[in-house]
Amino acid sequence: MSDIEQYINQRKQQDSQFYENFESGYLSFKLGFILAQAREKSGIIVEELEQQLNWKKGTVDRIENNSKSVDIMTLEKYIKALGKELIIEIR
What we know:
Blueprint: H1 3-14, H2 16-41, H3 46-53, H4 59-65, H5 72-81
């Protein structure tokens, strides 16, 4: 385990607020990363996607870098514009 992983685990055990904030922040980061990766694999650049969806400049960057406040309908539009399908699964 790396030093950073040890630090995170230690902080999670000592501070419940850190744990809650870390988990929600990590999920937001992970979703943004997945969206950016899907866009890149589709060969679509940010500006092209914004034009296709008639979104303001910076909208895609905001979604990919701060997906915490993105609603499901926006995610669905984003994914469909990539020629993909949004599937939500509960396990």
